[in-house]
Amino acid sequence: MLSNSLTQRILQRFPGKLTYCFAYGSGVKKQTGYNDKAQKDAMIDLVLCVDDAFEWHKRNLERNPHDYSWMRLLGSKIIGEYQRYAAGVYCNTLIPIDKHTTIKYGVIRTQDLSDDLCHWSHLYVAGRLHKPVKTLIEPNAELRNDMAKNFENALHTALLQLPERFTYLELFHTVANISYDGDFRMFFGEKKDKVKNLVEPQLDAFLKLYKPYLQNMLHCIHVPDLSKVCDTRIQQTKSYDSVLEHLQALPKRIQELLNESLPELAHKPDFGSGVKSAIRAINRDNSIRQTLKNIPTAGVFKAIEYGSKKALKTFSK
């Protein structure tokens, strides 16, 4: 797990000012399906948010040239341009920190992260931030507002897919699944029960994240107890007005993919399936593009090693 001293050692590797940094995944958050050794040895996944990708990569190439594949020979300008394709993230993977610790880090521009959080243009980093993460560098006020919008987006999207009555577990499973639904890597490279394994041990952390936004929706949902996770079912209003309110609050990219007017869709009994199809389309396209984009940034040998480790997850219990 990520101790304070290890956090500082990792952050000190990187140059310049980071506007936000967080760690995620089994290397920092408890998940079922991993024994203690596997959890301890899991790679630590990081996202680094920077204002100027060109300048940051230039300085990082000077400080950490071996983090990069052969693409370092192209220079920071080409790397910064390449970063803007697909989901707007440039990944360096399998970076050794010490004999016990390996990291992968993705670099994203502040502007691109803001767009993804508010509009779900790619759902690549925004989806990771639907779930509990470990913050290493606090976001600025503007990004905090965008992150709040991202949480609201996730709740509206989940409620449209849920029945009239549901549990906390079902709610947060639906929220967590938003970023995985349609992602081709869920069929090759991840445990089959990944979402369940992620959500169950972190139910209290999910409630802590979403409690303020649930409180803002008490006009359309009835939550028996917001102080702790319980088995009592949550009830939501499935009236036309409530459904339309959720649809109108959806992020721009989802609305664009629905292909019909929201008032008309709110009248249909299968409005939830339309939302689900839009999510799958975003995740499918961007997971493929970003994965292909990551092959040259990792280099052939690292790409094979990383892919092999992912494949083992698929077939492990």
Q: Could you characterize the architecture of this molecule?
A:
With 317 residues, the protein is α+β, with helices and mostly antiparallel strands. The chain has one domain. It has a five-stranded mixed beta sheet. Strands 6-8-7 form a three-stranded antiparallel beta sheet. A hairpin with a 2-residue loop joins strand 3 and strand 4. The two termini are 22 Å apart.
- Tally of distinct domains: 1
Question: What order do the strands of the largest sheet run in, or round the barrel if closed?
Answer: 3-4-2-1-5
End-to-end separation: 22 Å
Find the count of extended strands (DSSP E, 2+ residues). 8
SSE inventory with pairings:
Layout: H1 4-13, E1 20-24, H2 36-41, E2 44-50, H3 53-63, H4 76-83, E3 89-98, E4 101-109, H5 110-119, H6 125-128, E5 134-137, H7 141-161, E6 165-166, H8 168-177, H9 194-199, H10 203-215, E7 221-222, E8 234-236, H11 240-248, H12 252-258, H13 262-267, H14 271-298, H15 300-315
Parallel strand pairs: 2-4
Antiparallel strand pairs: 1-2, 1-5, 3-4, 6-8, 7-8
Helix pairs in contact: 3-4, 5-7, 7-8, 7-10, 12-14, 14-15
Would you summarize the structure shown here?
With 317 residues, this protein is of the alpha+beta class. The chain has 15 helices and 8 strands. It has one domain.
Structural features:
52% helix; 3-stranded antiparallel β-sheet; 317 residues; alpha+beta
